[in-house]
Amino acid sequence: MKTKSWFVFAISYLLIDYIRPQDQITFLKYLRPGLVLTVILILFILINIMKIKNLYNNQLLLTVMFIFLLIMLVPFAKNHRYAFNTVVSMAQIIPFFMSCVICVNSIERLKKFILWLVIFMVFQAIHVISHNGTGSSGIFRDENDVSLYVNTWLPFCYVFMILEKKLIKKILFGLFIILGIGANIASFSRGGFLGLLAMIIVICIASRKKMASLIGVGGMIVIMILFANELYWNEMRTATNTEDGTGRVRIESWKSGYAMFLDNPLGVGGNNFQVRFEEYQTQWFKRGMYGRVSHSLWFTLLPELGILGVMIYLLIIKCNTGDLIKIKGISKQLAPEKSILLNYMVTAFFASLAGFFVSATFLSVLYYSHYWYLTALIAATAKISKECLEIEKKTTNKNVETMMPD
Q1: Burial environment of residue 389 by CB neighbours within 10 A (0 to 12, 13 to 18, 19 or more)
Q2: What are the tens digits of pLDDT across the range 205-238?
Q3: What letter does residue 78 receive in the DSSP assignment?
Q4: If we measure between CA atoms, which residue out of 333, 390, 343 comes closest to residue 162?
Q5: Count helices and strands in the chain by DSSP H and E runs
Q6: Residue among 397, 391, 384, 383 nearest 59 (CA)
Q7: 372 lies in a domain?
Q8: What Cα–Cα distance (Å) separates residue 76 from each residue in 27, 68, 260, 262, 268?
Q9: For the chain, what is the domain count?
C-alpha cells in the first residue's frame, strides 16, 4: 500500500498543531487547516481500511477506551460543554494516531518523522529564547507548557547527534540541544528544569555508550551553567518550597483534587475540575475560586476520570514501557546499523517519557497532544522492529536454504 501522500499529510498535521501558522496568518484561521487535515486523514483511513495490516495495538485500543470514558461522563458533568469539548479535542487525536502507525512503517520514515518533530521543537525554542520565555502561540504562550513541550522532544536531538556520521550534522544537532536547553532556561520554569534533569539522568542510565553519553550529558550541564544566571538558579531553588508561593498553591490544589475524587470516585468529567473546584477548595484559598485548574496531570486525571480513567492511563504507560523493552530485545537480533538506531531510539523514548511526566506532574496537561503523539510513535516503532525482525529471519532462512546441497 502506497502511503507517501498520507505520510506528508500526517507531518502537515503536526505542523499545524505545533507551529500553528493559522495564528499568525489571519486568512488561514478561516480555512480551519486543523479540521481539514483531520478530515483528510480520516478519508485516507476509510479508503484504505481493507488494505491496512497490523493497525490495531493495545495503545490505540486503550486510547479509544479513554475517549469512550470521557463520552460516558459528559451527561454527569456539571458543565456539559467543557466535557463535550474535551471529547472532541481528544477524538481528533485518533485519526493522527492511526495514520502514524500506518505511515511510519520503516526505520527511514521513523527518522524522518521524528526529525520533523525536532525541527518544530527548535522553531519553538528559538521563539522562546527571543521572546522572553514564551512560545509562538496557543498553549506555547505559557512558559511552563512550552518547557514541557521542549523536554518531550529534546532527547531525540541527542540521538541524532550521536548517530550522525557527518561532523556538520553532529554540530547542527548539538546546536539544537543548546537551543532546547536555552529555551528551558529562558522559560524560568521549575517544572521544566526538573523534567530536564530527569531526561538527563535517563540518558545517562539507559545509553549503551556510557562514555559518549557522559560526555554529552556533561556538555548539557556545562551549557546550563554557562547560560543560566543567578536569577535563574534562585528561581530553581524555590522548586522544593511548599510553604508559600506557587508550591503551596499546587499542594492545596492537589488536596482539593483528592477530596473531589473521594466524593466522585467515577469522575466529574473532562475539564470539570475547574468547574467543581470551589466546592472542594481548602480553607487556604479565598472563597469562590471557580476556574482554578489542578496544576498536575495526575490530579486532573484522578478527579476528572476517576478510578477507571486512572486504570486506563496506567495501562497505556505500561504498554508503552513494555513495547520499549520489547524493541530493545528485538534490536539485539537485528543487523548492527538497525540495532544501534533502535537502541538509541528506545533511550530517547524513555528520556522523553521521563521529561514529560516529571514536568507534567506540575501542570494540567492531561489532554495535551504531546503524550498521545509519543504513544503513537512508540506503537509505530514497535511495529517497525517486529517487521525488521521478520525480514531478517526470512533472509537468514533463504540464505541457509541456498547454501544447503540439493
Answers
A1: middle
A2: 876 666 666 666 666 667 666 666 677 666 666 6
A3: S
A4: 343
A5: 17, 0
A6: 383
A7: yes
A8: 38, 14, 14, 16, 7
A9: 1
With beta carbons less than 8 A apart as the criterion, state whether 165 and 156 touch.
no
Residue 209 Ramachandran class (φ > 0 left, ψ -120 to 50 alpha, else beta): beta
Measure the CA–CA gap between 228 and 397, rounded to whole angstroms: 56
CA 317, chain centre distance (Å): 12
Grid cell listed for 146: 512550552
**CB 158 within 8 Å of CB 208:** no
| CA pair distance 383, 376, nearest whole angstrom | 11
State the DSSP code for 25.
Answer: S
Distances (CA, A) of 93 to 14, 61, 150: 11, 13, 20
Measured CA distances, 400 to 157, 331, 356, 394, 396 (Å) = 40, 22, 46, 10, 6
Contact by Cβ (8 Å): 325, 342? no
For residue 158, what are the contacts with CB-CB under 8 A and spacing of at least 6? 173, 177, 203, 216, 348, 351
Residue 349: name the closest of 372, 331, 374 by CA: 374
Q: Per residue in 255-311, pLDDT tens?
A: 999 999 999 999 999 999 999 988 888 877 777 667 788 889 999 999 999 999 999
Inter-helix orientation angle 93-103/80-91, to 10° = 10
The tens digit of pLDDT for each residue in 331-360 reads: 888 888 888 899 999 999 999 999 999 999
Confirm whether 399 is domain-assigned.
Answer: no
Residue among 104, 95, 85, 13 nearest 377 (CA):
104
Rounded Cα distance, 231 and 235, in Å: 6
Domain span at residue 325 reads 58-90+100-381
Looking at the domain assignment, is residue 394 inside a domain?
Answer: no
Q: Is residue 37 part of a domain?
A: no
All cell numbers assigned to 175: 546546536
Asked whether the beta carbons of 181 and 223 are under 8 A apart, the reply is: yes
Cα–Cα distance list, 200 to 42, 54, 239, 240 (Å): 38, 34, 18, 19
Q: Supply 231's cell numbers.
A: 536569577
The answer to pTM > 0.85 is: yes
CA atoms within 13 A on the CB side of 279: 16
DSSP per-residue codes, 182-236: HHHHHHT-HHHHHHHHHHHHHHHHH-S-HHHHHHHHHHHHHHHHHH--HHHHHHH
What is the amino acid identity at position 197?
A: L
